[in-house]
Design goal:
Structural class: alpha+beta
Order of helices and strands: HEHHEEHEHEEHHHHEEEHHEHHH
Low-confidence stretches: none
Radius of gyration: 24 Å
Helix content: 40-55%
Distance between the termini: 60 Å
């Protein structure tokens, strides 16, 4: 058996004392870890390491656990950067004494709270919370991310949808496990009403995979900061764009600010290209053997 500190850290940085006792740690060992400063008392019945995630610590201090969008971010799912409000799950019996609802979004849970030592909702639970709490676009972004990372199975998603109002049933036709980023999902969702076929993560010989292809030849590349910042990444992106142009593709490269704050500029450009039928291979392209 390892140290109390390592066990708390293994559990995400926060742990219920009763769970540690059930695992075989003694009250004396826990008190000793606290006295050394390796762990500290968070609230009655809970301890935490000093470098535990701030949002988890805050959720447990408030008597709950991390939920919805906050839990999605903790699990590594794609969440919009503008989403900063803390979401926590609380047992319904805490309603009368909870006084911090103005500082966070609360998801009331009726399950037996004492039987569940978790500090963060599971992906399956948080997806249901996101569906009921957020707009449809954000929910699909979260679900695409969970499916793509294989943190949620298709069958689990079907089970979740079966437990929420029927208006969500059509969502199963809108998600795409192939989407590799929330930006890509947002572009796909916002462009689907333009009347052209949209494909995700299409492999093009000599180039590799592109985020989206509209129609036959209009490529949309959604650049997230985590993959496209830096001089070398910028240069590599431009090499890809030139390769696509040589093959007859039209390329629109859009950044996070464009997608999140200036989307209409993107949509107007795509509409103009579709209106001129530049998303389709022309007779000249076909004669030159570019159409594929």
């Amino acid at each position: 058996m390892g140290s109390v500190t390592n066990e708390v850290r293994r559990r995400g940085g926060v742990a219920r004392v009763t769970v540690l006792l059930r695992m075989g740690y003694t009250a004396a060992q826990i008190r000793s870890a606290v006295a050394r400063g390796d762990v500290r008392r968070l609230r009655k019945g809970w301890v935490t390491v000093t470098d535990a995630p701030t949002d988890v610590v805050r959720a447990v201090r408030l008597g709950g656990r991390l939920a919805c969008l906050s839990a999605a971010r903790h699990h590594g799912l794609w969440v919009p950067e503008t989403t900063e409000e803390l979401h926590i799950a609380l047992p319904r019996h805490a309603g009368r004494r909870f006084s911090d609802s103005a500082t966070c979004t609360v998801h009331w849970v009726s399950a037996n709270w004492r039987d569940e030592p978790a500090t963060v909702e599971s992906v399956k639970v948080l997806v249901r919370q996101v569906l009921l709490c957020c707009d449809r676009e954000t929910a699909i972004v979260i679900i695409d991310s969970a499916l793509n990372q294989r943190k949620l199975s298709w069958s689990a998603l079907q089970e979740i949808v079966a437990t929420v109002p029927s208006r969500f049933s059509s969502l199963l036709d809108e998600v795409d496990a192939g989407s590799e980023s929330g930006l890509e999902t947002l572009c796909r969702l916002r462009l689907r009403g333009l009347g052209a076929r949209i494909r995700s993560q299409v492999s093009i010989p000599g180039v590799g995979r592109v985020d989206l292809i509209i129609g036959e030849r209009l490529v949309i590349e959604a650049d997230g900061r985590e993959w496209h910042d830096g001089r070398s990444a910028f240069h590599a992106d431009r090499i890809r764009d030139l390769a696509l142009l040589r093959l007859g593709y039209v390329v629109i490269r859009v950044s996070y600010p464009l997608i999140m704050s200036e989307w209409m500029l993107v949509e107007l450009s795509v509409r103009a290209l579709i209106g001129r039928r530049e998303h389709l291979w022309s007779a000249t392209h076909r004669r030159e053997g570019l159409a594929r």
